Amino acid sequence: MGLITGCSIAIFLVSIFGYALQEKTPLAEQGLIDSNQFYLNKCTYYSFFLILTITSTMRFAFVDTYYYKDVYVWCKDKAYVIDKARDMERGWYYLNYALNFISKSPKMILGLTAIVVIGAYILIIKKYSSDPLMSLLLFFFLEFMDTNNGMRQMLAAGLAIIGYTFFLKRKWWGYLIFIGLIILGMQFHESVKLVFVLMLLVIGKPLNIRIIIPIISSLIFIVYPSAFQNLFESVLDESRYEYYLDYSNGMGLMRAVIVGVVPLVFSLIYVQQNKKREVISEEEAVMINFTALNSVFVFMGLSTQFWARLAFYTAFAPMIMMPKYINTIFPEKYRRIVKPVALLLYFVFFVYNIYVNIEYGAMKDFYWSWD
Question: How much is the pTM?
Fold first, then answer.
C-alpha cells in the first residue's frame, strides 16, 4: 500500500503544479479543435510519465506479475525458450530471452512494459485531449492499476495506441508504421489483431451504423449472454484464450456504469448537439467511435473476462473525450462545478478499486521492491 499511496501523493502534487502552469489557448493547433483547449507544461507530462513508470517498475507483484517474473528468470535458458514458445506467443519468450543479456533482473521486463504502455497513453492524451491534465488524471484513476496486470496484452495495447497516432496522420508511411506496430504486438498477444477490425469500424462519421450495431448487440448480450456463448466458444475452443470465457469472472457493475454507460450517453448527447453544425473533425469522430466501442466491450465484459480485456485497446478514448464532453455539453456556468465534481467521483472510484484489490489480495504485493 505504501507504493501506491506515495504514487498518489506525487500525482496529486504534480497535478497542482500542472494546473497552476497550464494555459488556455483560443484555438488548438493540434489534436481535437476546441475553443477552450488547455496547453499543459511539458514538465507535467514528464512527471506523470516518470512517477507512473517508476511505480510500475518497482512493484514487487500485482495479480499475474508473479508468473511473468518467473518466466523472465526461466527465459535465461535458451532450451526453455525453444520448448515453451508454444505455450504463449513466441515473441514474448524471445523478448525475455533478449532482455536477459542486459540484466537478469525481472525489473527489465516490468520497466519495458511500463515505458511502452504509460508512454503510449501520455502520447495520445497529449496529442488529442482538449484538457490533458484532466485526461491524465482519468488515466490514473481508471486505468493505471490495470496496466500492471496482463503484461503481454498491455504491451500489445501500448503498441496499438502508438499505432493509432500514426494511422490518424492519414499518410502512407503512417499506415505502414501502424501495421508494423500491430504485427509486432501480435508477437506478444494475438488478440491485438482485432485492432485491424476496430479501425474499419471507427473510421467515418461519429456513431455510424457500424458502431450502432455493436452497441445494440452488446445490450442484447447483457440480457441474453447464452445467445452468443456457442459462437464465442467455437471461435476460442482449444485456444490459449479459452479460459477467458469464464462467465463467472466479469467486471463489476460500478465500473461498467462509470467507464461504459456515462461516456456512451455523453457521446450520444454530444453528437446530437453537433450533428447539424458539422464541427466534428475526422480525428474526433474516430475518438467518439472508439469511446462507443469501449462501452461495448465494457458492457459485454460484465459477463465474461474475454470482452473486458479487449477494452485494453479502446480504454484511452473516454479519457480523451470526457473533458471535451463536459466542456461542450454543460453550460459555461456549470462547468466549474461539473469538472471538479467529476474528478472527485473518479477519485472515489479509484479508492474503491484499491479496496476491491485489497479484498482480492492483490495489493499486499504492490510494494516497492528491488526483486
Answer: 0.91
